[in-house]
Amino acid sequence: xxxxxxxxxxxxxxxxxxxxxxxxxxxxxxxxxxxxxxxxxxxxxxxxxxxxxxxxxxxxxxxxxxxxxxxxxxxxxxxxxxxxxxxxxxxxxxxxxxxxxxxxxxxxxxxxxxxxxxxxxxxxxxxxxxxxxxxxxxxxxxxxxxxxxxxxxxxxxxxxxxxxxxxxxxxxxxxxxxxxxxxxxxxxxxxxxxxxxxxxxxxxxxxxxxxxxxxxxxxxxxxxxxxxxxxxxxxxxxxxxxxxxxxxxxxxxxxxxxxxxxxxxxxxxxxxxxxxxxxxxxxxxxxxxxxxxxxxxxxxxxxxxxxxxxxxxxxxxxxxxxxxxxxxxxxxxxxxxxxxxxxxxxxxxxxxxxxxxxxxxxxxxxxxxxxxxxx
Length: 375
What we know:
Largest sheet: 4 strands, mixed
Helix content: 40-55%
Distance between the termini: 44 Å
Strand order of the largest sheet: 1-6-8-7
Radius of gyration: 21 Å
Number of strands: 8
Structural class: alpha/beta
Order of helices and strands: HHEHHHHHEEEEHHHHHEEEHHHHHHH
Number of helices: 19
């Protein structure tokens, strides 16, 4: 029987940002990455994801690991014979005590390259995922278990498996480039907000399911955003345009946290006052709303999805049926999550946008906050 132990965590991880002093962006790194958006199935990250997926904990949590599809079956066939290895048992124990260990392992995967079976340090990343929610670590778990991870990779012939799956990985990346429109989203957000980001990286895997997260790093006047997301989803019963919008929403509502956050911080005190009566804004009985304890955090979540609606209204302008489907789905999803005034919030935000088309979205905050205070 599959458990859903992570359901509460899924609400808080989409806007996770890690401490920013644990990276080292040299001038060379900045030059190589400026203005680039990269989609990658990182080798070390895939290794660690596979190792975590074959733990007893991973096998019992299909909300953490995608367990449908041929790739998962190929992973089980190749790697499950090694699940009794000591390092897998250690990972299982760590996950059982704290599911956030998933992020501390996979979120620090880029700190190493795998070369000839040896984990070689990546100078740009020291300990990027060092704090999630209220949990903080001081030591990279990959460093702690470096020799054990190397031994597992060699014993299981991971590199051979990874190379054999390259055509499958290439198809995942090409689908992302075709259907996710990352550059288009990035351009729109840069145009409509004051915040500027230097580079984006998407790490994906066919093993990722609901546990998605975002990390933001600033170092040496360079701001990089990374996102860990599932592969592009092809949902039965959706039109091609609706599927595109669905996949866009999944990514967009990760990306735009980085743009919504800055003006929200500038108005934090006003937001906490305007939305102080939480029961007007969230169904406090809905599971997960406890992670939005004040007006500032409640507003940010409304705004994150509200801005996606603004993007959709502009991107799919003229397609009345599709826009109706997008609006209805966003409102439904958010209301189910406990954000009970999503429909009214979206209508007000769209109205403000239509009257102030030449203004940055940052500039709409004062009037939107005033409206919130009158509800």
